[in-house]
Amino acid sequence: GMSCGGCAASVKRILENQPEVASASVNLATETAVVWTVPEVQATKNWIKDFGENLASHLTSCGFTSSVRDVTAQKGNRSSQKKREERLAHLKDSGYRLAMSWTLCAACLVGHASHFLVAMAPSWMHMFHSTGFHVTLSLIALAGPGCQILVDGWKSLCRQAPNMNTLVGLGAVSSFIISSIATLIPSLGWRAFFEEPIMLLGFVLLGKNLEERAKLKASSDMTALLNFLPSKAHLLVGSSSEGALPTVEVPCSSLSVGDHIVVLPGDHIPADGTVRGGKSAVDESSLTGEPLPVIKQPGDEVIAGTVNFNGTLTVEVRRPGGETVMGDIVKMVEDAQNRQAPVQRLADKVAGRFSYGVMVLSAATFAFWNMFGTKLFPSVVPHGSAALLALQLSCNVLVIACPCALGLATPTAVLVGTSLGAMQGLLIRGGDILEKFSSVDTIVFDKTGMLTAGKAVVTKAVAIGNEESENVFPINEAIVRKCKLPNWSKLEIFRLAAAVEANSLHPIAKAVVQAARSAGCETAMAKDGTFAQEPGCGATAIVEEKRVSVGTFEWLCRQGVKYGDPPSLEVSNDQTVVYVGVDDSLIGAIYMVDKVREDASTVVESLAQLGISTHVLSGDKNTTAEYVAAMVGIEKEKVLGGVKPDEKANFIAKLRKENRNVAMVGDGINDAAALACSDVGIAMGGGVGAASDVASIVLMGDKLTQILDASELSKKTMRKIKQNLWWPFMYNIVGILVAAGVLLPVTGSMLTPSIAGALMGISSLGVM
């Protein structure tokens, strides 16, 4: 496995040396690697699995035991749970070796204490301060708890990829060899220090154990996310009798689409589905961050991992097992943790050659003190032995240097940041996104669903040719006679428009459908395969052998509707109007309003305080966009209405050319191009497929304040990353200088290998 940043760099280098691999990302904290293949790789049947197994086999042959992750398991909690169990087992093994190591350290201390208690101690205690006793302890330490470090370090050196274990192993073995020479050749006048390899390995193993615990704690937020997914479900196995629901408990992984399950009060919902019976309040805070429970009744959708409160629900399974929304969230977060922040690249370059550099510095330290140091500073040489001093200092340099902290600097911060974000309903796609969002200075909002609630309400409909209507379009009588228009009723306008809009997810479409239901309209269906939608303009379909179009006036004209100039309508600034056409005739218009979000003005004000400029883009008419912008505190000059999807993308591109770091907030198909064009795309409320697929950040809740949460999280994460990078760079620079004896001429003091090892062992904790 990987033990330090040098190992991670070696794995990355091995993977990228394969001709089929374009690039690779290696995460030391999660012990995973992701590869991107070159375009020339043939996508034959099962090629991904075969290619992954070949890479894993190659890595294993190079000394890094690897396996291909089960993609299906990764969507659920099995893969992550297995990784956690492996870490717990590794921590347990580390604890055993640590206990054995510190038992040897305690015995070593008893041996030293016996020197001072020799007058009072019984004769049998004299053996504790004998050279043979310390030699035995040292050999046990090297062959027992330190064996794994020595073997891994030697193997890494042989494959020309030295790591932290190589440095520690060289330091421990060098200390033992120096002490052995001092014992075997007393005439050299060297002092034996067999306790050094014992204490060195003890401190290093302590540091490794603490590091494993810190890694486990850093991944605890992901574990908490996985705990929302239950392992068992109550499967309905027959019809109810006398009010009872016959069920059997089954694993969630065995559920299939169409199964009916019973969710009892207090249970986590085991699969995504549709409520078919019962009524209850459901806590969706684990998914959206919204603290208030949501009432669910027949026909409503429920999500796996959410909690049923006070009623029993019968749910028809739609997305079971690893296919649930929560499973997708877990996979997305795991993928995000493998995307590095660009700021980590320098650390990776340093870590990749770190061990070679340390060995060179160790050799240089020995050469300096053995050849020149004793001549320049004769007072620092103990017993006139320049070689012994040089060897001790070179050992110090080997063991104090630590590439681990460099390799962990960014992954641990990204691990915690993305996991915390997921717990708050923020799906952030990687460390690179956190870095980009922390430097955003301009945020562009789509109006509908972003600054407004996205829950448009129809206020009235206007029909053409209906003399009883109080609101009649001015219309040319010749056109009426020519087109033989019937007196379209408002109910008929709603019915035909709803038949088209039922195929769309746009907030305006949902409002039209809801208005038709509320008005009690008879159901009409669009003919299969005839629905077409132009983002930002409108939609059309064949309904009852008629071409029905719903959208802007200009778009209806492009669809063949003949009317001339736009109708003169009294429309207030907060109203949106969509027109309805049948074949080549304009038959009416539907008025609707969309309330401004209660938190929109607060968010805009907070962003301004952070120095972030805000803009509004909308496909709605300019007067409505400006009205909403004024309501939330955005200047008129920063509003652009009546824009199409490509114009939104062009506006974003223009801002970026002005050297601005731009985030775009949207949730619809017509926002997808602008989201993809921005530095950071943010999909609100989960968005629709196209928006969520291209978004860098997905806000699962329906709160605009989550943008502030994401901004704060990104800034805190970047501060932590920079702190994590600053600490190991400074530690290694200062630590290596002190270990090399830079303070020796001034203070007359120097580190011992064991103290240097202790400092190295705890250095990684500063980034956890």
Automatic annotation (TrEMBL):
<dbReference type="GO" id="GO:0055070">
    <property type="term" value="P:copper ion homeostasis"/>
</dbReference>
<dbReference type="GO" id="GO:0016887">
    <property type="term" value="F:ATP hydrolysis activity"/>
</dbReference>
<keyword id="KW-0479">Metal-binding</keyword>
<dbReference type="GO" id="GO:0016020">
    <property type="term" value="C:membrane"/>
</dbReference>
<keyword id="KW-0812">Transmembrane</keyword>
<feature type="transmembrane region" description="Helical">
    <location>
        <begin position="163"/>
        <end position="182"/>
    </location>
</feature>
<feature type="transmembrane region" description="Helical">
    <location>
        <begin position="102"/>
        <end position="125"/>
    </location>
</feature>
<dbReference type="InterPro" id="IPR036412">
    <property type="entry name" value="HAD-like_sf"/>
</dbReference>
<feature type="transmembrane region" description="Helical">
    <location>
        <begin position="725"/>
        <end position="744"/>
    </location>
</feature>
<dbReference type="InterPro" id="IPR023214">
    <property type="entry name" value="HAD_sf"/>
</dbReference>
<feature type="transmembrane region" description="Helical">
    <location>
        <begin position="188"/>
        <end position="207"/>
    </location>
</feature>
<dbReference type="GO" id="GO:0043682">
    <property type="term" value="F:P-type divalent copper transporter activity"/>
</dbReference>
<dbReference type="Pfam" id="PF00122">
    <property type="entry name" value="E1-E2_ATPase"/>
</dbReference>
<feature type="transmembrane region" description="Helical">
    <location>
        <begin position="354"/>
        <end position="372"/>
    </location>
</feature>
<dbReference type="InterPro" id="IPR027256">
    <property type="entry name" value="P-typ_ATPase_IB"/>
</dbReference>
<dbReference type="InterPro" id="IPR006121">
    <property type="entry name" value="HMA_dom"/>
</dbReference>
<keyword id="KW-0472">Membrane</keyword>
<feature type="domain" description="HMA">
    <location>
        <begin position="1"/>
        <end position="60"/>
    </location>
</feature>
<dbReference type="InterPro" id="IPR059000">
    <property type="entry name" value="ATPase_P-type_domA"/>
</dbReference>
<dbReference type="InterPro" id="IPR023299">
    <property type="entry name" value="ATPase_P-typ_cyto_dom_N"/>
</dbReference>
<keyword id="KW-0547">Nucleotide-binding</keyword>
<dbReference type="Pfam" id="PF00403">
    <property type="entry name" value="HMA"/>
</dbReference>
<keyword id="KW-0067">ATP-binding</keyword>
<dbReference type="InterPro" id="IPR001757">
    <property type="entry name" value="P_typ_ATPase"/>
</dbReference>
<dbReference type="GO" id="GO:0005507">
    <property type="term" value="F:copper ion binding"/>
</dbReference>
<dbReference type="InterPro" id="IPR008250">
    <property type="entry name" value="ATPase_P-typ_transduc_dom_A_sf"/>
</dbReference>
<dbReference type="GO" id="GO:0005524">
    <property type="term" value="F:ATP binding"/>
</dbReference>
<comment type="similarity">
    <text>Belongs to the cation transport ATPase (P-type) (TC 3.A.3) family. Type IB subfamily.</text>
</comment>
<feature type="transmembrane region" description="Helical">
    <location>
        <begin position="384"/>
        <end position="409"/>
    </location>
</feature>
<dbReference type="InterPro" id="IPR036163">
    <property type="entry name" value="HMA_dom_sf"/>
</dbReference>
<feature type="transmembrane region" description="Helical">
    <location>
        <begin position="131"/>
        <end position="151"/>
    </location>
</feature>
<dbReference type="Pfam" id="PF00702">
    <property type="entry name" value="Hydrolase"/>
</dbReference>
<keyword id="KW-1278">Translocase</keyword>
<protein>
    <recommendedName>
        <fullName>HMA domain-containing protein</fullName>
    </recommendedName>
</protein>
<dbReference type="InterPro" id="IPR023298">
    <property type="entry name" value="ATPase_P-typ_TM_dom_sf"/>
</dbReference>
<keyword id="KW-1133">Transmembrane helix</keyword>
